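// run 5 | inverse folding | seed 20
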């Protein structure tokens, strides 16, 4: 009998992206693209100290002429769905085949590597709707050019584009390394709104644990903890990446720009410390939640135990008077059965015993 096919999970929030894996033994530097990836769109910011021109390029062969007419250029490539276009870009900028292969791996960890013609950097950009939906930004820093690759539209670089258009700050005169710093700084700062969102969720969970604990509280805490673990897995490699940029003497990062990169390193450290502290808070909230549930169970068991303790002697008395021995056979066979107030007498004994037990339990501070 044929087995039914499993339904494919819908793409979007809550669905995990399928990891792409090359077949074992594939030649190094193989450019493999996914069919569903969008075709590359090449946006060029050609700028200098006096002006800035935005151009959309359809053929990578047009880029060398643009670079000759402008002191600096930022080439932003959005979409990785055409291996031929990417190969042409690699030939224009003399990108190593292994670096292009890493560009096409959207799940790569953050890193920094130096080649002869450029400095290759991979960073991961966060997104506020889904804290674990990070996007890879591949960046090549040359002497007069900065080349960036992203697989999907949407980024955190709008403020940088606006600064280039308006000429604010030193971004037009700082060189390619300063633009590289600005892009890395924007990428790292994109984690702060995500961390703040997780902090708000933590505060809501903390209030819920203190006010009322239900079955779903622990599950919600574990969901936040899982998001924090995945987010830390993305942010932690940035520390190593920043260490390479700050410690190693590369020819593409000047000393004035290295000072700005120190601030990025501080931001990465701050983000990872916040994530670690929130993970500890999650563990504490789970313990508090479980302790609260345990305390409630103890209170319930305490009440039930008190009730059972009181009714055990009452049940004994009721069972004794329920044996119905005939009084005409012996004067010891429950003469109370013939009393006029025998029934109220038995109830009074039960009341005295119950009240006595209550006073005893209170004197022992068990109530």
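// decoded
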């Amino acid at each position: 009998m044929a087995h039914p096919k499993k339904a494919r999970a819908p793409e979007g929030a809550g669905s995990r992206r399928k990891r792409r894996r090359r077949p074992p033994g594939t030649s190094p530097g193989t450019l493999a693209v996914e069919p569903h990836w969008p075709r590359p769109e090449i946006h060029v910011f050609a700028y200098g100290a006096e002006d800035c021109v935005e151009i959309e390029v359809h053929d990578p062969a047009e880029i060398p002429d643009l670079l000759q007419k402008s002191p600096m250029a930022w080439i932003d490539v959005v979409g990785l769905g055409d291996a031929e276009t990417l190969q042409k870009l690699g030939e224009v900028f003399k990108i190593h085949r292994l670096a292009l292969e890493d560009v096409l791996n959207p799940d790569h960890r953050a890193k920094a590597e130096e080649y002869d013609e450029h400095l290759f950097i991979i960073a991961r950009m966060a997104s506020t709707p889904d804290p674990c939906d990070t996007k890879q930004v591949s960046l090549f820093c040359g002497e007069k050019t900065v080349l960036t690759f992203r697989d999907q539209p949407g980024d955190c670089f709008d403020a940088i584009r606006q600064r280039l258009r308006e000429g604010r700050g030193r971004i037009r005169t700082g060189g390619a390394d300063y633009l590289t710093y600005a892009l890395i700084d924007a990428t790292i700062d994109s984690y702060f709104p995500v961390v703040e969102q997780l902090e708000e969720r933590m505060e809501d969970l903390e209030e819920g644990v203190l006010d009322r604990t239900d079955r779903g509280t622990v599950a919600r805490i574990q969901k936040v903890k899982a998001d924090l673990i995945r987010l830390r897995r993305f942010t932690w490699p940035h520390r190593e990446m920043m260490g390479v940029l700050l410690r190693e003497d590369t020819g593409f990062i000047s000393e004035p720009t290295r000072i700005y990169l120190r601030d990025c390193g501080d931001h990465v450290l701050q983000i990872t410390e916040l994530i670690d502290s929130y993970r500890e808070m999650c563990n504490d909230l789970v313990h508090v939640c479980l302790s609260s549930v345990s305390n409630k169970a103890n209170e319930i068991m305490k009440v039930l135990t008190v009730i059972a303790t009181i009714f055990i002697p009452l049940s004994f008395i009721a069972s004794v008077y329920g044996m119905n021995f005939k009084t005409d056979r012996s004067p010891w066979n429950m003469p109370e059965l013939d009393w006029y107030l025998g029934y109220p007498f038995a109830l009074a004994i039960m009341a005295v015993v119950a009240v006595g037990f209550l006073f005893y339990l209170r004197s022992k501070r068990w109530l």
